[in-house]
Recover the amino acids of this structure.
């Protein structure tokens, strides 16, 4: 009898141990799943968007109205699609996310900021240059209302969120696209002129120059102060030394790299559209090859990164330096833009 109770007690203890072990395994599996879901989402959301088919895009945006593809339609449709890509890519717009996994990601938010900067500059060119026949002409109402919306805080998540402001700006530019494509109306215009294009390229030149300098500073270097070079009568607010040491902090190297990736991705598409809408201008200045070379350098800057982190070698050391490689392509594109502006200024 005593042996029976001992066996019963032992069986109960074994059953309890088995249940505890099963519960532990189930908890471990659940924990792994909970951890893997945000990690997998974060990896998927971190993929950069695919290139946009420029001609197919404008045809798609004008398919409902059955309007002809007029001068300016391709450039307008490209600006709209690039802005939409910021909002509609996998994961949506991540720069203002406050929930995981978006809050833990920084590569794509920096990519978004770089692309957004190009969208802002291009939208301003539409408002101030492409849509106006001369300096005393009236601004287009859609562009004057839509362009400031792209300058809204890129990290606002509520009251209102950034996405709602940018979508409203897209709607205004879509209205402008429909109006310039309307064969029955003339209230909106797009002027493809050499001076308009050159003025926008001046803004692009400044953006690329800044990115190139920040990327090059990944290794740290001493630079000669050339702030006032070439202007003996010039002055600046405070004095500066003859030499300055610049270096991008290690934890910001990948931020600058992905900002540059986003900027060159957007600019690559804008220049492809410019090739179409400004084709006659470029042919007249014999500048078509120059634009093609700029686009080629920007395409090279979009090559896949096959290493999981952005390496920051010394330049001539054992390890690669992704920032210096990106700076090389951007500097080449920037030098070609300076030459292109010179061609456009010629009579």
């Amino acid at each position: 009898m005593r042996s029976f109770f001992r066996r019963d007690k032992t069986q109960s203890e074994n059953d309890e141990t088995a249940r505890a072990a099963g519960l532990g395994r189930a908890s471990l599996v659940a924990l792994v799943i909970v951890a893997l879901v945000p990690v997998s989402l974060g990896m998927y959301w971190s993929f950069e968007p695919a290139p946009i088919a420029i001609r197919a895009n404008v045809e798609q945006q004008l398919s409902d109205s059955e309007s002809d593809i007029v001068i300016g339609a391709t450039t307008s449709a490209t600006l709209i699609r690039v802005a939409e890509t910021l909002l509609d890519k996998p994961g949506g717009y991540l720069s203002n996310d406050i929930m995981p996994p978006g809050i833990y990601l920084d590569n794509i938010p920096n990519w978004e900021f770089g692309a957004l900067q190009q969208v802002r500059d291009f939208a301003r060119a539409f408002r101030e240059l492409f849509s106006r026949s001369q300096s005393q002409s009236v601004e287009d109402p859609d562009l004057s209302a839509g362009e400031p919306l792209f300058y809204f805080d890129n990290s606002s998540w509520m009251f209102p969120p950034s996405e709602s402001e940018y979508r409203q700006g897209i709607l205004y530019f879509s209205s402008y696209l429909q109006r310039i494509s309307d064969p029955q109306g003339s209230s909106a215009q797009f002027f493809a002129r050499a001076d308009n294009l050159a003025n926008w390229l001046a803004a692009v030149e400044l953006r690329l120059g800044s990115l190139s300098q920040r990327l090059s500073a990944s290794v740290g270097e001493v630079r000669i102060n050339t702030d006032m070079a070439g202007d003996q009568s010039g002055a600046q607010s405070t004095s500066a030394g003859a030499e300055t040491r610049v270096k991008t902090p290690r934890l910001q190297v990948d931020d600058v790299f992905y900002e540059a990736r986003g900027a060159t991705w957007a600019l690559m598409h804008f220049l492809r559209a410019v090739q179409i809408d400004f084709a006659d201008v470029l042919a007249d200045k014999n500048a078509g090859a120059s634009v093609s070379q700029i686009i080629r350098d920007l395409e090279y800057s979009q090559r896949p990164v096959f290493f999981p982190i952005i390496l920051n070698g010394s330049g001539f050391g054992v390890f690669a330096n992704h920032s210096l490689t990106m700076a090389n392509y951007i500097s080449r594109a920037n030098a070609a833009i300076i030459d292109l502006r010179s061609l456009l200024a010629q009579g």
Residues 48 and 319 are 25 Å apart (CA to CA). Residues 2-45 form the longest helix (44 residues).
